[in-house]
Design a protein that fits this description.
It holds the Pfam family RabGAP-TBC. The protein has 371 residues and is mostly helical.
């Protein structure tokens, strides 16, 4: 509705109406309802005019601002999604490349250890950047690099059998109680005598026990004295094994599974202590042994896995031979002691990663020399 007077479309609107100017010229300007320059007045739905000429312009500006904001928001969301897609594509590419590199390394290692004569130098170079999981590769490579297995594959079976038999004999001699060892020897002796005199009946012979073989003997040469001497060490080993990787059920818990593994590691550490009286057992050796025993126990080769205790002992001894001086307190301040080694480590760290060295030395106050 219009208010009954002549109204003109504004010039800016008239120019947008097709044929509007032509019709105005044809009429010669007479009888026209709209006069140039006069604006339309907007009639509100309630029949009353707004009375404010600027309201329409303000609403338009508000709507325009809202549209701009929505556009900016939409553009931002699209940009973010694009960036996320790019990052996702990038991480996927990295993952694919990592899988390819792992497969190539696995193939290289399998090829090297399948040779009749293993090239240890080349194998060490490949393994220096890490070993792929699965396939029992890590167990075999560790045994080779630690010198437990010879480079010649033809000698592997002989070496494994010999070392496993030696370990079994050491356990029998050093880990059994004197009474258990005496019983085994007595049974073997009786078996020999029985075979020699199988047709002879007579009274049982009583074995005499010497003073040194008596459990209450205090003599240093007594087998019982030597046995009880390691009781305290055995208790320390048991305490440390309870704290070894408590997050792994393989080591922790009271299941028969975990107890079997702790017992095997206990045998290894106690036997090492008895064979090395100058060093014995030092806290931390359990952490050195744990990865060896875990890898060998989880070997996919069942025969190797069943002999994990014997193989772990031999590799543990070889590994400790290079760092045994670090566990000897009398050598702490010598050129081969732990303090000298930590000093060299700090120098290497400073030369290769000074930022990390400064963080440890000054920021966190965790100097390598305090470890």
């Amino acid at each position: 509705m219009l208010k009954g007077k002549k109204l003109k479309l504004p010039d800016r609107l008239g120019s947008l109406v097709v044929g509007f100017d032509d019709k105005d010229e044809d009429s010669g300007g007479s009888g026209s309802v709209f006069e140039s320059g006069e604006e339309l007045e907007i009639i509100q739905p309630n029949g009353f005019g707004s009375g404010r000429e600027s309201e329409t312009d303000d609403d338009g500006e508000i709507e325009e601002d809202a549209m701009v904001k929505r556009k900016v928001k939409v553009d931002g969301e699209l940009e973010q999604k694009g960036r996320q897609r790019h990052e996702k594509d990038g991480s996927g590419h990295v993952l694919v490349m990592k899988i390819i590199q792992t497969d190539e390394k696995r193939s290289d290692i399998e090829y090297e250890i399948s040779q009749k004569e293993v090239n240890l130098e080349k194998l060490q170079r490949i393994a220096s950047t890490g070993l792929p999981d699965g396939g029992g590769l890590r167990a075999t490579v560790w045994k080779l690099l630690l010198g437990y297995l010879p480079p010649s594959r033809d000698l592997w079976e002989k070496e494994l059998t010999g070392n496993r038999q030696k370990y079994s004999k050491l356990k029998e001699e050093l880990l059994l109680t004197p009474s258990e060892l005496a019983r085994i020897k007595e049974e073997a002796l009786h078996s020999t005598e029985h075979n020699a005199d199988s047709d002879t009946d007579g009274p049982l012979t009583r074995q005499k026990i010497s003073h040194e073989d008596h459990p209450l003997s205090l003599g240093k040469s007594s087998v019982w004295h030597q046995y009880f001497e390691h009781t305290e060490i055995a208790e320390q080993i048991d305490r440390d094994l309870q704290r070894t990787h408590p997050e792994m059920k393989f080591f922790s818990g009271e299941s028969s599974f975990s107890r079997k593994h702790r017992e095997a590691m206990r045998n290894i550490l106690l036997l090492f202590s008895k064979l090395n009286p100058a060093i014995r057992y030092v806290q931390g050796m359990n952490e050195v042994l744990a990865p060896l025993y875990y890898i060998f126990s989880t070997d996919i080769d069942e025969q190797n896995a069943s002999n994990a205790e014997a193989d772990s002992f031999s590799c543990f001894v070889r590994l400790m031979s290079d760092s045994v001086d670090h566990f000897c307190q009398q050598l702490d301040n010598s050129s081969v002691g732990i303090l000298s080694t930590l000093s060299r480590l700090a120098e290497l760290l400073k030369a290769n990663d000074e930022e990390l060295w400064r963080h440890l030395e000054f920021t966190s106050k965790a100097s390598l020399m305090e470890f």
